[in-house]
Write a structure and sequence with these properties.
The chain is 24% helix and 26% strand. The chain has 394 residues and is of the alpha+beta class. The protein binds flavin-adenine dinucleotide. Belongs to the MSOX/MTOX family. Keywords: FAD, Flavoprotein, Oxidoreductase.
Length: 394
């Protein structure tokens, strides 16, 4: 998000400085790895307009860079027909039911791959795709530099303070100090720690350990599950919530993983946790829904640890920090395992909030920022969740 914001701000002529605590493109946060998915099917109606804005901005950034990081694919959602989140997601995303809904065509492209469980449906939508994650972050950093931004890594920010009207001071662990008119804070899983130490506020952003799993495609089916064959990104509602990208980065393997994981401390992680809780439910799901095509014997062939930064309602935080900082410090955080696709839109919105005090792009694209405000937690610790039993969902 920080790299996207730096690109957006420097594209508008701002003198932007991007500070990163570790090495650039490190593996200790949330944005590394081979792939992320984009889709417009969301249970919450406020995300599809943001996804459509982002989709356009992905194209613009790629045109600016001269290479591609996003491979478009169709997107498929599967889920219990009576699951309200599944129904809302396909409704909000304009997906067409292709199996299990009663009115579907007699055959659909992936009928031979998915065994849709009794009582479930599958719905297809056009806006899907795979972003090359690390390559995309590198692209936004390179574009930001091209537009005049300065990027410094191994710079841990330890304090943000006001120094008079219109001046924000940022101090790093190495003792350097930087002054600017505005400061955008996009520190992922470190958000609650930094915000607490700067303003004493408890922002409910919980770091979570999660696992990316790649599974072996069964012999004879390697070509079928690829982006070249038009295979979709997909999500499966219910418990567990499963997501997948087509076979692409590792030929012969397909990424299928479970959303979520156990809470963790980003500064003392146990990289090995979760094999049982995070891989076994996926294996059981594969054996039920894709038994003919994906091999679960022996578990996933490749695993990679990653972190989510979860809010209680799984909605992002995109807001001014307020208090003594007023509109001069802006926070983009709590992307809850579904932020990558919206990086370009969030970066643009954060930059406009910093430079103009409001986001014109959000207004023009019909993106409602109200559900992403910090004050939603003031009267309700669960934010946008109305009922105690409600759960968020990516
Ligand atoms: C396994 C996995 C799969 C996912 N799949 C999808 C998907 O398919 N689609 C999708 O849209 N999203 C997906 N996501 C979510 C998405 O990747 C994240 O929402 C997004 O990358 C979050 O970006 P961020 O900038 O908030 O965090 P990060 O990328 O972690 O960036 C925060 C940066 O701030 C730095 N930092 C922290 N503290 C300081 C400090 N004090 N000083 C300086 N620097 C600091 C960190 O080192 C880090 O580099 C997935 C996430 C994971 C983990």
């Amino acid at each position: 998000m920080g790299s996207c914001a730096a690109y957006a701000a420097s594209s508008r002529g701002a003198r932007a400085l991007l500070l990163e605590q570790f090495d650039l493109l490190h593996h200790r946060g949330s944005s590394h790895g081979e792939s992320r998915t984009i889709r417009a099917t969301y249970p919450q109606a406020h995300y599809p307009p943001m996804v459509r804005l982002s989709r356009r901005l992905w194209e613009e950034a790629q045109a600016d860079a001269g290479y591609r990081v996003l491979t478009p694919t169709p997107h498929l959602d599967l889920g219990p027909r009576d699951d309200p989140e599944f129904r809302a997601a396909i409704g909000n995303g304009g997906a067409a039911v292709v199996a299990g809904g009663g009115a579907e065509p007699s055959s659909w492209p992936w009928a031979g791959v998915f065994r849709v469980p009794e009582g479930w449906a599958a719905a297809s939508s056009e806006l899907g795709g795979v972003m090359k994650a690390t390559k995309a972050v590198a692209m936004f950093q390179a574009l930001a530099v091209k537009k005049g931004a300065v990027v410094r890594d191994r710079m841990e920010v330890i304090d943000i303070a006001r120094r008079g009207e219109g001046s924000i001071l940022v101090r790093t662990a190495s003792g350097e100090e930087f002054h600017g008119a505005k400061c955008i804070v996009t520190v992922g899983a470190w958000t609650s720690k930094l915000v607490k130490s700067v303003v004493g506020m408890d922002l409910p952003v919980q770091p979570v350990h999660t696992l990316i799993c790649h599974w072996k495609v069964k012999p004879g089916h390697k070509g079928e599950l690829t982006t070249e064959a038009g295979f979709p990104t997909f999500a499966s509602y219910g418990d567990p919530y499963i997501y997948s990208t087509p076979s692409m980065e590792f030929p012969g393997l397909i990424k299928i993983a479970k959303h979520g994981g156990p809470p963790c401390d980003p500064d003392s992680r146990d990289w090995s946790t979760g094999a049982a809780d995070l891989a076994e439910p996926v294996a059981r799901w594969i054996d039920t829904v894709m038994p003919g095509h994906v091999d679960t014997a022996g578990g996933p062939v490749i695993r990679q640890s990653c972190m989510y930064s979860m809010t209680p309602d799984e909605d992002y935080v995109v807001d001014f920090l307020g208090g003594e900082f007023g509109k001069d410090v802006i926070v983009g955080a709590g992307f809850s395992g579904h932020g990558f696709k919206n990086g370009p839109a969030v970066g643009r919105i954060l930059a406009e909030m910093a430079m103009d005090g409001e986001s014109r792009s959000a207004v023009e694209a019909g993106v409602d920022l109200e559900p992403l405000r910090i004050d939603r937690f003031v009267d309700n610790p669960k934010g946008n969740l109305k009922n105690p039993g409600d759960q968020g969902r990516q």
